[in-house]
Amino acid sequence: MKKITLSNGETVEVKCLSCALTNGLVKPEGGVVIETEHFHAHQDVAYPIRGLIILASKRHIKCLDDLTQSERLDYIDVLARIRKAQRTALGIEHVYYFYNEDTTHHFHTWMVPRYEWMYNFGRSVESVRPVLLHARNEMNTKENVEEVKEAIDILTKELNK
Ligand SMILES: [Zn+2]
User: GO MF terms on file (predicted)?
Assistant: First the structure.
């Protein structure tokens, strides 16, 4: 079991955070941005960066090659739809994508928008962990969290119209 702290300070114990989210046991703050037959996308507001999205499979699998043919098609389709919405609705020019198979939870892709301020933490991939930690530790202000939630609403509308 894994103990997780929600953004509102409450803690819950779950076997797999991704399962808890895709089954609706844990509700992401700001809600689900889009749900398809096989995938579920939300923002983890623990990292308050406008437009950062986590796309998780509904099935508890670990590796890309565990995806069925129908899941693969759904995955690339919804990934590209979210990317397009980030561009058209939020003006996000570049995105970094991360996914590691040795995760404690299950198949999920981080879509991290690249903003100007992030270059203060380094040029490329090496800056991502410092950027995420900075966001979690220094950007949890009321104003910023409101902006992040506004972006979640914008993306949700764009993806479900
Ligand atoms: Zn799972």
Answer: hydrolase activity
15 CB-contact burial (10 Å; exposed 0-12 / middle 13-18 / buried 19+): exposed
- Expressed in angstroms and rounded, the spacing between residue 40 Cα and the centre of ligand 1 is 12
19 CA to middle of ligand 1, Å?
Answer: 4
Neighbouring CB atoms inside 10 A of 7's CB total 15
Structure tokens belonging to residue 88: 């058209």
CA of 21 to the centre of ligand 1 (A): 9
Helical axes 69-90 vs 142-159, angle rounded to 10°: 120
144 alpha carbon to ligand 1 midpoint, in Å? 30
pLDDT in tens, 88-143: 999 999 999 999 999 888 999 999 999 999 999 998 999 999 999 999 999 999 99
Q: Which token pair is 116?
A: 């100007």
CA of 130 to the centre of ligand 1 (A): 27
Task: Give the Cα separation of 116 and 114 in Å (integer).
Answer: 7
Complete domains list, the chain, with CATH: 30-159 (3.30.428.10)
